Amino acid sequence: MKEKIGIEGISLEDIEGMRNIVDTAYRRTMERYDKGELGFMEVIQKDCECYRLSDRYKEFKYILVVGMGGSILGTQMVYEGVKGVYANELNSKKVFFLDNSDPELLYSILKIVALRETLVFVVSKSGNTVETLANFFILREKMKKEGCREDNVVIISSGGLLKEIGKRENYKIFEIPENVVGRFSVLSSVGLVPLSCMGVDIGKLISGARDMDKLCRREDVFNNPALMNALIHYMFLNRGKSISVIMPYIERLYRFDLWYRQLWAESLGKDGKGQTPVAALGAKDQHSQLQLYLDGPKDKIITFIKVRKFKEDFTIRYKGHYLDGCNLSQLINFQQLGTERVLTSMGVPNISIVLEDLDEYTLGKLIYMYEMTTAFMGEMMEVNAFNQPAVEEGKKITRELLEGKGKGEEVVKDYIIKI
Ligand code: PA5
């Protein structure tokens, strides 16, 4: 490895020099909110009771959420963030997420669940997303054959074919407000309705988001964590850090990485601009990605997320060994510290977010901080963080191909490797 090259940090003067950009980003974000464009800031003020289903929906043994992108990633992130990666093995309620048009995925889920005992949430804001509709159509046919009732299905949507079917077939329907964009929708009906059936305390989640909202409304960048987070990322983007790595040191936050990846990429990647989000996980990626982060191109900014108190812990015993008496939680947090130190000494900029513990409340805070960070960052970069023209174009092309109107294979056959 090369010699240490010192810290490439940001000074107070650097931040002072950005005053105009910060103030403008803050003002524009709040103006958009005042105009009613930022529904994700409004929904957290709603009473959580409106998202709860009646008791008869509690009896289902299985829950299956069907959706794509912003309509499902957040729900899965919160579920795993609260319940853990082996929740299905440990709990009597089994929860599945179906967010691909991969037939093997659907097959495996159908092998496990009994449809009559399954509560299916079909989530799509547009109500027309092809993967969601395709999976739903297949499920619907099977559910009819197995004699499922209308209570088996809950629709969460703001329109399209999905809502039409919902009304026609008398399914329970929850609205998604028009001004809530997919990837910013986890704290709306999109996430809260299914999560409330999965044993997640949605009240605590929202209370964390509301407390973070108070901090994110402060004009002073030094007292506003989202504004500061956006500013740091913006300044390093301008210094050539085109990749933003997020690296929690707790398994339960790996889905948070995937949610963040979508939020950052789809919101900010436009007009030739953007910062590529990368999902990493400590301590595992110290044995894979870290080599590149330390010794590869200096094009990254790293964010560590660490948790002080784990729900469970173990003490290691082996007389004479340096691990003797150490807790696993201490080990993983030392590993984070070591990585932070070595990255800093090699001149790789990094930020640490420290959670006291990881529960619904702290997760609600973290989610909302990232939503606000993304909104501020969009204004700093002068891109509209709340549209996704390229994603919409992709959806249109898929539809044209399916309707036989597309140009067919020749458009993708630049180079094919057959295995
Ligand atoms: O963030 C977004 O807008 C997208 O990721 C959408 O959530 C995704 O494409 C699914 O769209 P819909 O909810 O309309 O099915």
From TrEMBL:
Catalysed reaction equations from the record: alpha-D-glucose 6-phosphate = beta-D-fructose 6-phosphate
Pathway linked to the protein: Carbohydrate degradation; glycolysis; D-glyceraldehyde 3-phosphate and glycerone phosphate from D-glucose: step 2/4; Carbohydrate biosynthesis; gluconeogenesis
Keywords on record: Cytoplasm, Gluconeogenesis, Glycolysis, Isomerase
Matches recorded under InterPro entries: G6P_Isomerase, GPI, Phosphoglucose_isomerase_CS, SIS_dom_sf, SIS_PGI_1, SIS_PGI_2
PROSITE patterns per the UniProt record, alphabetical: P_GLUCOSE_ISOMERASE_2, P_GLUCOSE_ISOMERASE_3
Pfam family, one: PGI
Active site as annotated: 266 (proton donor), 287, 395
Matches recorded under SUPFAM superfamilies: SIS domain
Enzyme Commission number, as recorded: 5.3.1.9
GO molecular function: carbohydrate derivative binding; glucose-6-phosphate isomerase activity; monosaccharide binding
Main EC class the enzyme belongs to: isomerase
Subcellular location field: Cytoplasm
Keyword set includes Cytoplasm: yes
Gene Ontology biological process terms from the UniProt entry: gluconeogenesis; glucose 6-phosphate metabolic process; glycolytic process
Cellular component, GO annotation: cytosol
Chief location of this protein within or outside the cell: cytoplasm
Described purpose of this protein according to its UniProt entry: Catalyzes the reversible isomerization of glucose-6-phosphate to fructose-6-phosphate.
PANTHER family, per the entry: GLUCOSE-6-PHOSPHATE ISOMERASE
NCBIfam families per record: PGI_Meth
Family: Belongs to the GPI family.
The protein's name in its UniProt record: Probable glucose-6-phosphate isomerase
Taxonomic placement: Archaea, Methanobacteriati, Methanobacteriota, Methanomada group, Methanococci
Protein's gene: pgi
